[in-house]
Write a structure and sequence with these properties.
- By secondary structure, the protein is mostly helical.
- Helices cover 57% and strands 4% of the residues.
- Helix 13 packs across helix 25.
């Protein structure tokens, strides 16, 4: 639809809704069960509207206000999808969102006065989809438009809620009471996204786990699955900003392990090697794409994922003794990049984000934590993250701590005792922090040592696994691999798209976003040697649930 025609429709719709609010004797309704001549003018004084022929003084007109609002919003989104986002035309078109938002709020006020709950819930969902992902300043600017028209302002407004986050909360609470399950699900995802946007990780995590969305989202429509993927990425970024590196890595792993990030977030089409899309399929995919101003920066999300993987994977690599155990990876995508970087004969200066992180990983392996810190902090993409200064400071501190852990894992066989004060000077950490980190490693049985606080040293113990223990660990690895292969075979026999409830063990494959995935997923390798306790394998869904802070009972989380 041309912009001029769209603007004309929006103005006409505003006039119609204002007229209906001002004149209660006129009503536009879909359920008009009698015929009338549209060419004949009718007035409240002469019209007969009900089946019995009684005069109630209301002129009923067949039509649907909510359908007009839906079509207007859809045309606005479609126009943004077909405009070059890097030109001035996109900015000019985006300014029309203020008028659209005002029309949506005006329709909401009309449905409140006429007590049409279903239509009101649909239009409130439209309103929520325009504000849940926006920063507070932008939401406040949108809400200021409603201040000039106080008579037609809906009940839920920024003035009544106090702040944009409170407004989103009030809207979602109202939508939770509706009978439409799709609206409830989308409201929950928008609410979680907004909490993650405001760095409220624990609330977002608890809402995901308690709602069990990861169990049922595979059966939802495609747009809801896209919203779920966007929410998961935002929760992962929220965990990263809050300094929860392990949780961030486990959550983002579910998206970045697929190698189809842009397709899952509806921010681009994935060119598959051996399959081609028909023109109809490609057209359907393009209509699902998110407008450019709603995109999540995938390069920023990838940088967060790779840095989190580095801080988790490098100490784990140093703690493993055998080459077979080192082949087991927490993040296979990160391990592939690291192995490729290690095979290079010559490494030049880093040119992109991946190069910075791979060189920082190698420096962290070699104990050069200052170099690793400088390489990570020099990545320019951090400037696009909110509170970038605090994020860089957090990363510097975590690199110091993980550098200390890596140093202890790698050099424990060569020391009998090691001074805590020396470690404090090497890694520029306080003596209390060093003592805390070492004590935690000993408590978690990651380090076979004891702490002599009187002498201020760490006393390392030589604990070598016996031949029988090594064989038992090898056997447990083989059994874990056998179980994984059996799960994959069973999934392939059942067609690869069976739901979790169709399997007796509750670990069936799930299909979401056009890709069937097995419930078993990849598994962590067990750890061998004397530095730490063996670690059993866990499926991909279990790692996702653990990344959110707890195991999901009865089913594994779906693969995004």
């Amino acid at each position: 639809m041309p912009r001029d025609a769209w603007m004309s429709v929006q103005e006409e719709l505003d006039q119609l809704v204002r007229l209906l609010i001002r004149e209660p004797s006129y009503s536009v309704d879909e359920a008009v069960d009698f015929e009338y001549d549209e060419m004949v003018e009718r007035s409240p004084e002469t019209v007969k509207t009900d089946k019995e022929g009684r005069e109630d003084g209301i002129v009923r007109i067949r039509g649907s206000i909510i359908s007009f609002v839906d079509r207007l919003d859809d045309e606005f989104t479609r126009s943004l999808q077909n405009i070059d986002p890097h030109g001035t035309e996109y900015i000019e078109r985006l300014r029309d969102e203020q008028g659209l938002y005002k029309a949506i709020c005006l329709a909401e006020s009309f449905f409140e006065r006429t007590s049409r709950d279903d239509a009101r819930a649909r239009v409130i969902m439209r309103r929520l989809e325009h504000i849940y992902y926006k920063p507070d300043a932008v939401v406040e600017a949108l809400e200021q438009i409603l201040g000039a028209d106080a008579a037609n302002r809906p009940v839920l407004s920024l003035q009544s809620a106090g702040n944009p986050q409170g407004l989103v909360h009030s809207i979602c609470i109202l939508l939770y009471k509706t009978s439409n399950p799709i609206l409830r699900t989308r409201a929950m995802l928008c609410h979680i996204y907004n909490h993650a946007l405001h760095n409220d990780f624990y609330t977002a995590r608890d809402m995901i786990l308690m709602s069990h969305l990861q169990e049922s989202v595979h059966s939802a429509d495609v747009s809801t699955q896209i919203l779920y993927n966007r929410t998961i990425v935002q929760v992962g970024l929220c965990a990263f900003r809050c300094g929860l590196i392990k949780e961030s890595q486990q959550i983002l792993q579910e998206i970045f392990s697929t190698q189809r990030v842009k397709e899952l977030l509806a921010q681009g089409l994935h060119q598959q090697r051996y399959t081609t899309l028909t023109p109809e399929q490609e057209k359907a995919e393009r209509t699902r794409q998110m407008p450019f101003h709603m995109h999540i920066n995938t390069e920023l999300a990838e940088a967060a994922f790779l840095v989190a993987s580095m801080l988790v994977e490098i100490p784990l690599l140093a703690s493993l003794d055998t080459e077979e155990a080192r082949r087991k990876a927490v993040s296979k995508s990160f391990r592939r990049l690291l192995d490729h970087a290690n095979r290079q004969v010559f490494n030049g200066p880093p040119e992109n984000t991946r190069d910075h992180i791979m060189q920082a990983s190698r420096a962290l392996q070699d104990g050069e934590w200052q170099k690793a810190r400088d390489l990570v902090q020099s990545i320019a993409i951090w400037n696009l993250m909110p509170e970038s200064k605090q994020v860089k400071e957090m990363l510097a501190k975590r690199i110091q701590e993980e550098g200390l852990r890596t140093y202890l894992f790698a050099n424990a066989p060569y020391y009998n005792t090691l001074s805590l004060e020396l470690l404090s000077r090497i890694f520029s950490l306080s003596l209390r922090s060093v003592t805390s980190i070492v004590s935690k490693m000993i408590w978690n049985e990651e380090l076979a040592a004891s702490l002599d606080q009187a002498a201020g040293v760490v006393v390392f113990h030589r604990v070598e696994a016996s031949k029988l223990q090594q064989l038992a660990l090898t056997l447990s690895e083989r059994v874990a691999q056998l179980v994984e292969q059996n799960e994959k075979s069973l999934d392939s026999k059942l067609g690869g798209n069976v739901g979790w409830q169709d399997r007796g063990d509750g670990k069936g494959g799930e299909k979401r976003g056009g890709e069937a995935t097995g419930g078993g997923g990849e598994r962590r390798g067990t750890r061998t040697g004397g530095r730490g306790a063996p670690r059993g394998g866990r499926g991909r869904g279990a790692r996702f649930a653990q990344g959110l802070g707890g195991q999901v009972t009865g089913a594994q989380a779906t693969r995004a």
